Amino acid sequence: MRACADADFPAEIAVVISNRPDAGGLAVAQAAGIKTAVVDHKKFQGRPAFEAALQETIMQHAPIDLVCLAGFMRILTADFVNQWTDRMLNIHPSLLPDYKGLDTYARAINDGKAEAGCTVHYVIPEMDDGPVIVQKRVPILPGDTPDSLAARILVEEHKAYPEAVRIAAERITG
Questions:
Q1: Residue 123 sits in which domain range?
Q2: How far apart are CA 99 and CA 45, in angstroms?
Q3: In CATH, what number is assigned to the domain containing residue 38?
Q4: What is the pTM of this model?
């Protein structure tokens, strides 16, 4: 949101959509005057119906050049993802390809890694995979806990996502 407020930033937020009505990002977006929508996955019989409603909601705000996922903890089908090839981004709290899935901070600490971080990547049908756009690294410090590591990585996530959106948007607009 802060990056998009810069007149030189090559993207703007058309809508913030969540599958959870209680998502904190909705209130933040609304307070900033950004349109919001909820497509509650619990109200649909299966993924295809949910994804059809999600796609319809996205397209109500067209033109949409990029779909940026953040904290969206639903696995999307190949049919949905392939509608947005090279135009859907996700942020993941590890240095992919390491630690796909959940519990990334604890796994990195438990494996004795020297560093961890975050990755913004193009979404492909395989979970937590796809071409990397930006990675940010942080050292794992002696005594780190999953929470302390997560807090430092979050700082880097807030740098990585705008950087990746700029790269992706400039690629689209030429």
A1: 2-173
A2: 31
A3: 3.40.50.170
A4: 0.95
The total number of structural domains in the chain stands at: 1
User: Quick check: is 158 catalytic?
Assistant: no
Kindly name the residue from 61, 92, 121, 158 that is annotated as catalytic. 92
Per-residue pLDDT of the chain (174 residues; tens, 9 = 90+): 999 999 999 999 999 999 999 999 999 999 999 999 999 999 999 999 999 999 999 999 988 999 999 988 899 999 999 999 999 999 999 999 999 999 999 999 999 999 999 999 999 999 999 999 999 999 999 999 999 999 999 999 999 999 999 999 999 987
